[in-house]
Amino acid sequence: MLYLTECPRDAMQGWPTFIPTTDKIDYLNALLKVGFSTLDFGSFVSPKAIPQLADTAEVLEGLDLSQSGTMLLAIVANLRGAETAASHPQIRYIGFPLSVSETFQQRNTNKSIVQALDDVARMQDICARTGQQQVVYLSMGFGNPYGDAWSPAVLGEFTQKLDGLGVSIVALSDTIGASTPATIGPAFRELTAAYPNIRFGAHLHTTPDTWHEKVAAAYEAGCRHFDGALGGYGGCPMAADELTGNMPTERLLEFSTQVGLEPGVNLEALGEAVRLNQRIFAGH
User: Which pLDDT score is estimated for 120?
Assistant: First the structure.
């Protein structure tokens, strides 16, 4: 089967008007009933940088995990955020964006890549203490608009460093929709062969006419873990003024059926989540 991470956090973070906390809680609780492997529910970051997610702690308190096997993931941008996330035992995964672009690392977290790698090492120590797991997103993982070096070899260099730090979950992240089958396939093929102890995921952004070729390229190269967002909403507000949306979860479920894999979701619950998704994003 495909293992799906639903990313309402990514859909919400750049939304221009504040989504009420109660609406977020209702939507996330609906998503928890669907049966996704993981729910990227919120982010412990500066409210000045991402005001939409200033209520993440309050949202977390409103989530009903009693009848859900879905694991929670929170994104952080620094050690302070990691410590905050680690203080909530409901959270299974702590995600950190490590960019292969020096320009974007500075733009996204106000740190150099060297400083960010030091944070990754210290976050590993935090996770070892709490029993949580760190997920490192290699952002700008398929190219960048800044002219910074990119290639599968660059991804390999970063992955080698992460492997040395004990990181066992790495998501290759498109960020701006720059990926193509010609870049996706070789990256996953080379990395999964070289680092069998690391679980690689695909966080792809796409336009409506390129989603299938991107998912197929990653799948054929051995990837089975995919991030998506219902409706394809979202993107990183730190990346560019014009964003390419998230991979629509609906398309990932469609692809799963096409290749004969069990989607593993409750379709009735999915329908309710889609209804709330449309009400929230169309109504704000």
Answer: 98
How crowded is residue 165: how many other Cβ atoms within 10 Å of its Cβ? 17
Set out the domains of the chain in order of their start, with CATH numbers.
Answer: 3-283 (3.20.20.70)
Question: How far is residue 150 from each of residues 139, 221, 231, 248, measured CA to CA in Å?
Answer: 11, 19, 29, 26
State both tokens at 267: 């379709």
Q: Residue 206: phi, psi to the nearest 5? A: -155, 165
Give the predicted TM-score (pTM) of the model: 0.95
Pairing of the two strands 3-6 and 38-44: parallel
Quick one: pLDDT band at residue 173, thresholds 50, 70, 90? very high
Mean pLDDT is highest, among 200-209, 228-237, 242-251, for 200-209
Rounded Cα distance, 231 and 185, in Å:
25
Q: How far apart are CA 270 and CA 266, in angstroms?
A: 6
C-alpha span between 223 and 261 (Å, rounded): 14
